[in-house]
Amino acid sequence: MGRILIIDDDVQVCETIESLIVRTGHEAVSSYNLRDGLSKVQSGDFDLVFLDISLPDGNGLDYLQQVKDSSGCPEVIILTGKGDADGAELAIQGGAWDFLVKPSSVKQITLSMRRALEFHEEKQNKAQCVALNLDNIVGKSVEIKGCYDLVAHASGSDANVLVNGETGTGKELFAQTIHENSKRSGNNFVVVDCASLTETLVESTLFGHKRGSFTGAQADRKGLIPLADKGTLFLDEVGEMPLSVQKSFLRVLQERTYRPVGENREFKSDFRLIAATNRDLEAMVAKGEFRQDLLYRIQTIHIHLPPLREREGDIRELTAFHLSRLSAQYGVPPKVASSDFYDVLDNYDWPGNVRQLFNVVEQAFVASGSGNTIYAMHLSDSLRIKLAKSNLRKSGQVLSEEVGQIDRNAAESAVQPVSEKKDTVILNRDSVLGNTVSDILTEELPPLKIFKGMAEKKYLEELLLRHEGDTATILKISGLSRSHFYALLKKHGIND
């Protein structure tokens, strides 16, 4: 018998689903708001949760990960009163089992509930809802925690995995974590640098060679593929692999056999494949730069690592983690970072992601000498200059856009009839950004960080106002990813 929680402010919906649950032999509990629902899901082990999106005290999607991470690791079926394609996308990306539009038929609800419970039972039997060894992975943001379920899934199977993300996001670290949590953890984790593979040496590097098989082969050499037998073969930056090499490797991947250079026999290697890239392999396939059949083979499980700039709140946790590690490495007392140090880190875009952050933190750690506190002044001049220029560019762009809008409004006003001028005045008065800067600057100046937060909130409100909540247009204009956009809305308490 399964335990099922319904979080929905519509009493009739709760009673209908409760009736279906009881008739199928399961236990039903209802909550009519998020606060009560979250309290119940944390205090009891549920197998399934029906979660409404529009609740009196919040958006259910914002708490999807929290529900999934509760003690019972329940499956979640999202409920909504309208067909929302963007909401469905976010729900599925967040790991929801299904997305149902109210009112749904009894048959549809029952079928989705039964399948979700069957999946949950099978998952529990396979012990996939267990604590992973994530000693070296740091982060509690919704974006990075969404990757943990995929890591658990990959660790419990032998399927090929593709990890993609920008440079410095930790692709090799995630690959190692999958290996260390898998049944192959007692064997080799072999790294292949695909960018360094050349057509002349690829066979020798991957398959090995016999002594005297070519000029310079003075002894037998074991290749990387036989070294990975019973372990994991990690193809780093697989997007850099030459097309000719891709063809050679595809057969090895299909058959798990190889032939060393100079050998007349084939050998088997039982390796598990994990590949990583910072490139868009599907776009490369479209351009003929990557083999489609190879792409199909390597991405049975696909894990996308978010860039650091989209991981809300993780910068401080990563910094504290690395400072602790550096103190142990250098054999000195623990050091802490000051608030102004964190202010600088929080306002930088981190194009090099976690790798760049760790490098910057270590530079500041060394620069602080024997002191126990790290300040912004301990950061390198180059980073502080980059940050200052970045802030000036952002400020200049906003200012130029505002000035341009004022000029356009003035030009339109000059040619409009009197009846239309009134409408223009009303539009400008309702515009969120219209007098924001002047209003703030007429009062006592706030700290820069607070000012940026105020401007960011006003910018988001103006986007929603001008484009009437058209998410696709808003994302195109702002340059934000969908997850980052919704994270900012949540941060500033804006209801879209």
Automatic annotation (TrEMBL):
UniProt entry keywords in alphabetical sequence: ATP-binding, DNA-binding, Nucleotide-binding, Phosphoprotein, Transcription, Transcription regulation
A GO term, aspect molecular function: ATP binding
Coiled coil (residue ranges): none
The protein, known as: Putative two component, sigma54 specific, transcriptional regulator, Fis family
One BP annotation, GO: regulation of DNA-templated transcription
PANTHER family hit by this protein: ALGINATE BIOSYNTHESIS TRANSCRIPTIONAL REGULATORY PROTEIN ALGB (PTHR32071:SF113), TRANSCRIPTIONAL REGULATORY PROTEIN (PTHR32071)
Annotated ranges, domain Response regulatory: 3-117
Statement: the UniProt record of this protein carries the keyword Transcription regulation: yes
Domain of life: Bacteria
Boundaries of every Sigma-54 factor interaction domain copy: 137-366
Pfam entry (one): AAA_lid_14
InterPro entries given in the database record: AAA+_ATPase, AAA_lid_NorR, CheY-like_superfamily, Homeodomain-like_sf, P-loop_NTPase, Sig_transdc_resp-reg_receiver, Sigma_54_int, Sigma_54_int_dom_ATP-bd_1
